[in-house]
Phospho-2-dehydro-3-deoxyheptonate aldolase
Amino acid sequence: MSNNLDSWRRLPAAQQPEWPDRGALERVVTKLEGLPPLVFAGECDNLKAELAAVARGEAFVLQGGDCAETFAGATADAVRNKLKTLLQMAIVLTYAAKVPVVKIGRMAGQFAKPRSKGTEIREGVELPAYRGDMVNGLDFTPEARTPDPERLLQAYHSSAVTLNLIRAFTKGGYADLRQVHAWNQDFVAESPAGKRYEQLAREIDQALAFMRACGADPEEFHTVEFYSSHEALILDYDHALTRIDSRTGLPYDVSAHMVWIGERTRQLGSAHVEFFANIRNPIGVKLGPTTSVDDALVLIGKLNPDNEPGRLSFITRMGATKIREHLPELVEKVTASGAQVAWICDPMHGNTFEAPSGHKTRRLDDVLDEVAGFFEVHRALGTHPGGIHIEFTGDDVTECVGGGRAIVEDDLALRYETACDPRLNRGQSLDLAFRVAELYRSA
Ligand code: PEP
Ligand code: CO
């Protein structure tokens, strides 16, 4: 185990902002280094143990949230709506697929975005691209788009607020299984998936009533374990929030329980891979369709040399048309190497396209097809389809097309609110959960 937490500085770090004032950045970093942890190392270890069960084939990951969280979006309503969507999805999977679900939010820290281009041009004006609220503002003005290190502090505080809400909701009664009906209120209750959910919730109610009559009322029914995660993109931030755990003497990035490396920063020899090698959190790596078997094996050697189960998840994001072609060899060779990884399917990022209106969108059908391909590949190889990683929101947005209450391309402008990629709305997320449960069961 290396304790060289600064070794990443010698290596190329892609996708970092050009801070106009290094001194200001350094002052912020010093402040961040003095702030309390957002999560505890022991909680990260608990998640690692749950992910080890996923790697063994005994549990399923449900990871999701916004593509890009915003500071303005850290409201009680928005956090509760995301949480209840995830809880509804988890209940569908737990009840219909009979599998324990590991719940991880792309929440409380998902504030930085990798971009394909460093600048954006509108009507002849060129400005720095929006890189997430942690770096700059979405408004297309020079003031908003100039990277501002004070935003790193705001990201910390916004994460703290969100995490506080999550902890209160999940431990304070809201996640109690007796609330299964309450999670289905408002617009989603009238959707086809909402009606299907109501039926399932009634069955759960009956089962609970029966258990209570028998005198059984286990603690697990009253609270849930919920973990935070984000793409650790801005290394100055995640490094400043890395602490040595007093129990074990080992370093953890205490800005989230799990962090992942994106498709654009996972190059071998990159600063990101180096930083991740030296923290002890459970980590993920996104793998796109160009990933070679060699890439995957070298990443495993670097990031999980001791083959610790639960430490490393591969989050594949191939695209619906490519997954059946590209995933089999990767899974087969990685499995043959003896490496223990959890395989998670991100059916979003390989399926983005631009609608005629200019909106970036995704078809729910493509998302469902990639997930189906993921299950087919794993079933054919006898490996475990370990989970899904999605972009969704708890609100009634119109960003992705399709679904039980179908959104068509002409609807996209109605309620298109994402700061980055298009998200599934709550009805579409429930549609997806029912489909995943079917796929899981029919294996
Ligand atoms: C993301 O998860 O929002 C993202 C940018 O994904 P990827 O790294 O897979 O492109
Ligand atoms: Co995204």
Remarks:
- The mean pLDDT is 96.
